[in-house]
Amino acid sequence: MQHVIVVALSHAAQQLAVVTDVPRLEAEILLAHVLQVSRSYLHTWPEKIITLEQHDAFSHLLARRLQGEPIAYLIGHREFWSIDLTLTPDVLIPRPETELLVELVLQSIHADNAVIADLGTGSGAIALALAQERPSWQVYATDASHAALAVAKYNAKRLNLERVTFLAGSWCQALPDLKFDAIVSNPPYIAEEDAHLNQGDLRFEPRCALASAERGLQDLKQIIWQAKDYLKPGGFLFLEHGFDQAKDVATFFVKADYTLITHHADLSGLDRVTIACR
To answer: Which CATH homologous superfamily contains domain 77-277?
Structure first.
């Protein structure tokens, strides 16, 4: 039986409509990945015949997506800050709202030779975006997961950003004995009992990168207290947090004697990042 692109996409989109709001787009992403072509190719050659092997591979990915597995894991990559990151289920899928962290660091830190730390780097998204934008910065990236660090190191090598130093360990405890101009982190901040952890893409992502104790606040609080010993006087701590956690995070900063505490909203108008000065 022969299969042509337009028919395969149509059937796939009908099935995907039960799990996504953009079924046609997801069908195109999966088929383009299998065929190793661009999505524009699918529009240019809709009557192109695909082989049985290609159709079987497409059907396999489609079945996994219908079980809820994220597109980013199925195709093994996701774009973040205009860089293409290789992903595995060992790392969190970078979200667009996390680009706000990168933007704020770039706007706030002006020293040519700044020393920066990214805590809980995962795929390396934040550290590598900063390294790409500021080649003269000295960037350190930590993660407690050796599997995650392997992914981050692979991304650094593939993107020719190997000057980033990767270190294994929990938060600031993995950092060298240096004083940093800025420390940035997107730590776990979902409450451990949150029902969303058992829904959608979150079911497939590493729980340790998503959930935290104390209503999602434990890791945020730990980083705030640890970072005090690693920031230069006047250095900044940048934290991504939940949309309803800004007040709690500000309270932690005040108790730890930080100053210049500011909240910054994401594209949805929700407070997503808080910055404070040591």
So the answer is: Vaccinia Virus protein VP39 (3.40.50.150)
